[in-house]
Amino acid sequence: MKSMTGFGRGVAEHGGARATVDIRAVNHRFLDLKMRGNLPPATEEAVGAKVRGALERGAVSVSVHVTRAAAGASRVDLAAARVAHEALREVAKQLGLVGPDLKLVLAQPGVMITDAGAPEGDAPDAAHAAIVAATDLALAQLATMREAEGQALARDLTARLDELAATRATLATLAAAVPAEVQAKLRERVQRLLGDTQLEPARLAQEIALLADRADVSEELVRLASHLGQARALLGDPKPAGRRLDFLVQEIGRELNTVGSKAASADLTSAVVGGKAALEKLREQVQNVE
């Protein structure tokens, strides 16, 4: 399991171009990718493809900065400088002039040498290669951070599911006592209304059965247990599980609402309210899961 939140930075050099790529990701229902850096179309497409291949959803911001090495550095060829100085000194001597100064020596061909930098025609290709390599490094760092946060999320989600499982067990215990409670309440109500008049036992049993059936939540509890089990299994799934967890959270809420609407006792209603509180905490955390 991975969190949708994280940051990654990658730095790479190629052919005199140095690229720094920063990738920031936060929660979002879908994948929302934004790139900054005035990239050539081919490079932007390559970076976008790598991000879309690595992330399923989240608001992702990619920032790219490229610098290039200087065209070349100058240095003095001392051997050539000595030859030039001797030649100029000899000419000055023949003409009766003062010997040559340093500026004149350095101006002679071959004395100052400029080291060649990266060819200008290769600059776009070098920048593209550096950016793509830096993107890979940034995505790797982002994945490490998202996995670490995902482990923390999984622990918290497990605690929330445990709380809901305990609520479900409480509901099952309370629901098992509902038929007897319904029967006792109906008998008491009938006796209060009819006084000494006796109601046919078969008719009374029929009414009790109808009320108990309306208050029966066994199917809802079975589905609730299934949803909780599926959610727990997804916590250990390496594939993106956020959307499936979000769906299961909705289904868990649906079952709790149905149990609450059928609740035939104050204790059942109270347990449902507690379950909804735990579900809301679960829902908030699920929004952080990729």
Helix-strand blueprint:
Blueprint: E1 6-14, E2 17-26, E3 31-36, H1 41-54, E4 58-68, E5 74-76, H2 78-95, H3 102-106, E6 112-114, H4 123-176, H5 178-194, H6 201-214, H7 218-234, H8 242-262, H9 266-286
Parallel strand pairs: 3-4
Antiparallel strand pairs: 1-2, 2-4, 5-6
Helix pairs in contact: 1-4, 4-7, 4-9, 5-6, 7-8, 8-9
Tell me about this structure.
It contains nine helices and six strands; from the N terminus they run E-E-E-H-E-E-H-H-E-H-H-H-H-H-H. It is α+β, with helices and mostly antiparallel strands and 290 residues long. It folds into three domains: 6-68 and 121-146, Ribosomal Protein S5, domain 2, CATH 3.30.230; 74-114, no CATH class; 149-286, no CATH class. Helix 1 packs parallel to helix 4 (123-176) and helix 8 (242-262) runs antiparallel to helix 9 (266-286). The chain is rod-shaped and about 150 Å long. The chain starts with 5 loop residues before the first strand and ends with a helix. Mean pLDDT is 86; it is low at 117-121.
The dominant shape is rod-shaped
As a percent range, the share of strand residues is 5-15%
Indicate the structural class: alpha+beta
Radius of gyration: 39 Å
Overall pLDDT: 86
Q: What share of the residues lie within helices? A: 55-70%
Largest sheet: 4 strands, mixed
| Lateral strand order in the biggest sheet | 1-2-4-3
| Total count of strands | 6
Series of secondary-structure elements, N-terminal to C-terminal = EEEHEEHHEHHHHHH
Oligomer: single chain
User: Low-confidence spans: pLDDT under 50, at least 5 residues?
Assistant: 117-121
Task: Count up the helices.
Answer: 9
Distance between the termini: 7 Å
How many discrete domains?
Answer: 3
